[in-house]
Amino acid sequence: MMDLSPEQREAGKRDFVSAANGIIHGPEGTVSRRDFIKESAAAGAVAVGGMGAFYFGYGASVANPVRVGILGTGDEGSVLLGAINPDYMEVKAIADIRPYNVHRAFHGDVYSAAALDARPGLLRRFGWKTEDEARKHVKVYGPWQQLIQNARSDGIEAVIIALPLHLHAPAAICAMRAGLHVLTEKLMGHSVHECKEMARVAAETRKHLATGHQRHYSILYDNAVDQIKRGLLGNLHYIRAQWHRGNMPGSDSWQQPLPPQVKPKDPTTDQLAKQLVSWRKQLDAARGGEIDNWRRKVAQLEAQLADKILHEKGEDGKPLAETYGYEAKRFEFPGQVYDRPAIEELIRWRLWERTGGGLMAELGSHQLDAASIFVAAAHGGEKQIPLSVVAAANRSIFGPDRESDDHVYCIIEFPAPGYDPKDPVGKRRKIGMQYASINGNGFEGYGEIAFGTEGTLILEREQDAMLLQSAARASRMTVQAAPSLDTQASGPAQTAQDSGPAANVSRGYKEQAEHWAWCIRNPSPENKPRCHPKVALGDSVIALTTNIAAQRKQRIEFKPEWFDPDHDATPEGVKPNTTRDSYTL
Predict the structure, then answer these.
(1) Which residue of 21, 167, 172, 462 sits 20 to 30 Å from the alpha carbon of 231, by its own alpha carbon?
(2) From CA 7, how far away is CA 139, in angstroms rounded?
(3) Pairing between β-strand 66-71 and β-strand 89-95 as defined by DSSP bridges
(4) What order do you get walking across the sheet with 158-161 strand by strand?
């Protein structure tokens, strides 16, 4: 990101807060941001952990909470589940084929305090005392198809999808055709043609389809957009973003440990079993309140080991993971062979091309979305289609135990105000974006910097924001920092210390779910999620085209028709088709 002296950092925070107190259009007309936030807090807007309803203009609750099912309760699914506000939604069922994920859905992730804060579980979210009590309210299914097939009899109206990326389109389309509204994790789909198919079915069925790019519901980012719109940066001309992680072989958050029976030679072999022996000793030695803490940890670890059932053969003679659609595969390289059982594709789905989208889909898409928002702000709020992308990716650290690259870099050009491809001068008016996501070194973490002719806006880890006016100069410091390891795919939940417009900066998960539910309960053309299909399609086109540019090692110019849900053109050259077999239960 950017090395600043402590004095510059504090001055930047003060400038951002001062700018954030500017003029906005609140529920009662034009008010200052400072007064709006004070009045919202006084009115109880933050009593349940946020002021999204007041800030973004949707109702503070719904009279009848939307009855939802959760498809996929893994790392991100449990984060989305933990963001549910009972004033807006009631969970009626969950679906997951992994015992580990079902356990965490009910009890939360107790491996660490940060994990539990991000994934508190159904018991804490809805106040149930035991899993038995919770199961009286929440049905549990294995394959996601079963939940959709039983949705009507279970009284379910909508689903939240946090399945592996390759299942977003099948699950969303089957759900919408079953009469259900959908909120799906990002990316919208595994390919652009799938995204267009999802958008078309949403239009046909008239169901809300929202995608979880939560920066659209971040008050911090909304304030940043306001500053750009009001010209505090001058002319925006360059954006730099990064997501650096300290993942290394043997300590990779995407290479989650396998049950020890699966692959004897895997680096994670015996990791879980040895941990269980250690934690059982801790439980035996525990006293007082620590007994319950260690008992919960042991129970979660036992559930994680129970995933071994997916490697065992079912009635059809195949491992259950294969029965559920995951694939075994052999990768051959000069002098070495890597065998991947189906359960490994399931547990480590982000590492494989068939099931995941790599760094650009899982991490870069968030920041490309932020860049698109900033560029739109420079154009007065009008969304812009990017012009071109050049990208490269490489495998610098990890071996043949994956298909996804561990480093990716790209440069994307957007039109600046005044861009005119027919004018020799106007066609050079562009906003450049430089992006990098690497493993092996987490120095400076993740965030975005927007450069203007009169100021610089820095956003770090979705929690900290600084505005440096033109008189400020960044000076480099010598810093010693160890690589960091994130605990979930898109980084741990963050809490702001003292910057931004409010004491606690929400990442937007809660607000996006609330607004989606409110739109369902208040149907009208103007009430739709902020990341509706056309917006989500645009974010996907940029991320997925960047992947193609890296694979082909070529510069690609974006075509406007790729961003049109009704046009058949796609960057991968596959025509949308909503009659695929996978879209029928």
Answers:
(1) 462
(2) 54
(3) parallel
(4) 139-141, 89-95, 66-71, 158-161, 181-185, 209-212
